[in-house]
Amino acid sequence: MLTIGIAIFVWFILKNGNFLLGILHRQPFEWIVPLGISFYTLQILSYLIDIYKGKIKAQKNFAKYILFILFFPQIIQGPIPRYEQLAEQIYEGHLFDESKFVKGFQLIVWGFFLKFMIADKSAIVVNTVFDSPEKYAGCYVLVAGILYSIELYADFLSCVTISQGVAKLFGIDLVNNFMQPYFSTSTKEFWRRWHISFSEWLRDYVYIPLGGSRKGKISQYSNLIITFAVSGVWHGSGYKYLFWGLLHAAYQIVGNVTFGVKEKIYDFLKLSKQSGARKMLQRMGCFFWVMLAWIIFRANSLKTGFQMIKNMFMIHNPWIFFNDKLFSLGLEWKEWGVLLISIIILIYVSSRRERGLHLSEIILSRSIYVRWLIYISIILSIMVFGTYGYGFNVQDFIYGGF
Amino acid sequence: MRKHIKFMCKCMIFLIILFICVENVYRVIVPKFFFSDIWPTTLTYSKFYEEEEDTIDVIFLGSSHAASSFIPQELYNNYGITSYNLGCEQQNLVTSYFWLKEALRYQKPKAVVLDCYFLFLYSGYEPLNSAESCTRKALDYMKWSLVKREAVKTICELDQYQSLVSYYLPNIRYHARWMNLSENDFFSEIDECVEYKGYTPLSEYAGLEGYEPFEADMSASDIDMVPLMETYLNKIVELCKNEGISFILTKTPTLNVNLEKYNTIKKYAEEHNIDYFDFNEKNLYEKVDFCFATDLRDADHLNLWGAKKITNYIGRVLSEQYDFQRCESFQWEALKDDYEKMQKDCELVHIVDIDKYMAALQDMRYSIFISVNEECTQNLRDHTIQQLRKLGLQASLQQEYGCSYCAVISDGTIIEQKGYNSLNYGGAIRDNLVTYDIKSAGNQSRSLSSILIEGTEYSKNERGMNIVVYNNDTRKVIDSVCFDTHERENFASR
Question: Is B5 on the interface with A (CB under 8 A)?
Answer without folding.
Answer: no
